[in-house]
UniProtKB/TrEMBL annotation:
Keywords: Coiled coil. It comes from the Bacteria. The keyword Coiled coil applies. Residues 17-51 form a coiled coil. It comes from Streptomyces wuyuanensis. The lineage of its organism: Bacteria, Bacillati, Actinomycetota, Actinomycetes, Kitasatosporales. This is Uncharacterized protein.
Length: 121
């Protein structure tokens, strides 16, 4: 490279700089896209987790029973306290008269028959 004049070396280095800047822009675009895809995957996993969960609405008055909903039920919109099947079984043991939402019908996703006293019997 010492055979090149200073002006030729300047042009070569400017070309290298421009190529590296192009590569950096391409890499940044790729990273941005990968991060968007990762965030979308995380969001989809969270939606799926909620859809496969249940939630327990506290009783509204003293002596009443709580109400069980599917995780994505719009009737009870809390974003906290999602239960897995094991915790639903515990809730059913603790609250044998547990009310189940008529709208989202959580007994179906639990694989249990419609509880006595539920609408449609």
């Amino acid at each position: 490279m010492s055979d090149l004049s200073r002006s030729e070396r300047i042009r070569l280095n400017e070309g290298l700089r421009d190529w590296l800047a192009y590569q950096l822009r391409q890499t940044e675009r790729t990273l941005d896209e990968l991060k968007r895809e990762e965030e979308e995957d995380r969001r989809r996993r969270e939606v799926a987790r909620i859809e496969m969960s249940w939630k327990l609405q506290p009783a509204r008055v003293e002596g009443a029973q709580p109400m069980l909903h599917r995780g994505n039920c719009g009737l009870y919109r809390t974003q906290l306290g999602y239960l897995d099947k094991e915790h639903v079984v515990i809730a059913l043991e603790e609250f044998p008269e547990l009310v189940m939402c008529e709208v989202c019908a959580p007994w179906g996703s639990l694989g249990i028959p419609r509880p006595p006293g539920q609408p449609g019997e």
